[in-house]
Amino acid sequence: MISKLSDREFKRRLDDAELCIPRLLESEYYRPIMIAKGRDVELAELRAEWRERQERARARKLKDDASFAD
């Protein structure tokens, strides 16, 4: 499900998560904490939502291009 954040805000959130979460998951100390809090799942969901947002943007662009060509 797509969140109500704008694409720019969402991308900033994803970038922050991409910066922090993988590093913490590599740590032998923080990994169990991050997994217990579900941060690994959260990162996967953020990535999936970003892909969906990109697909929708592409579909909108194709639709706009097609209507312009008519």
Tell me what the structure shows.
Helices cover 81% and strands 0% of the residues. The protein is mainly alpha-helical. Helix 1 runs antiparallel to helix 3 (39-69). The protein has three helices and no strands.
Question: How is the topology of this model organized?
Answer:
Layout: H1 7-26, H2 31-36, H3 39-69
Task: Tally the helices.
Answer: 3
Helix-strand string: HHH
Structural class: mainly alpha
Give helix % range.
Answer: over 70%
Q: What proportion of the residues form beta strands (DSSP E)?
A: under 5%
Largest sheet: none
Terminal CA distance: 32 Å
What global shape is seen?
Answer: rod-shaped
Number of DSSP-assigned strands:
0
Radius of gyration: 16 Å
Low-confidence stretches: none
Q: Kindly report the average pLDDT value.
A: 91
Quickly list its features.
70 residues; 81% helix; 3 helices
Describe the structure in brief.
The chain is mainly alpha-helical. The protein has helices spanning 7-26, 31-36, 39-69.
